[in-house]
Amino acid sequence: MKIKFELDTPIVVHMMDLDGRERDSEFPPFDTYWTFEAEEGRFYLSDTQGGLFRARLKARGIGVGEPVTIIKTKVPNPNSDRPIVEYLPYPWVPIESGQVAT
């Protein structure tokens, strides 16, 4: 099953492989792309997004099988008026009963 990300909507998944797989595209412009497997399904990222996503998973100490919150968001582009889409992984943290998120 393909996992689809909506802009600024967190999704919790359990990553089965933190390294992903780099693949060659069969369609123009024939760039590479990345596939990542989670218990909930598979998702695809561009060559640049995939490398950044892998580095962020490792930098944040996220392990295989652990729940991870992924947020697709837009960030300013210093070289253009067009924003950059990024996928940001965060370790999943449960909200304690009675706590209000701020």
Can you tell me about this structure?
The protein has one domain (11-91). Helices cover 13% and strands 37% of the residues. The chain contains 1 helix and 6 strands; from the N terminus they run ββββαββ. It has a 3-stranded antiparallel sheet with strand order 1-5-6. Strands 2-3-4 form a 3-stranded antiparallel sheet. Strand 5 (67-75) and strand 6 form a beta hairpin. The longest helix has 13 residues, at 47-59. The radius of gyration is 15 Å and the shape is globular. The mean pLDDT is 90.
Provide the succession of SSEs.
EEEEHEE
Largest sheet: number of strands, sense, barrel closure: 3 strands, antiparallel
The percent of residues in helical segments reads 10-25%
SSE-based structural type: mainly beta
| Continuous helix count | 1
Rounded to an integer in angstroms, the radius of gyration calculated over CA atoms is 15 Å
Spatial separation of the terminal alpha carbons: 33 Å
Total of domains: 1
Report the mean per-residue pLDDT as an integer: 90
Which runs of at least 5 residues are low in confidence (pLDDT < 50)?
A: none
Backbone shape: globular
Strand content: 35-45%
Number of strands: 6
Major β-sheet strand ordering: 1-5-6
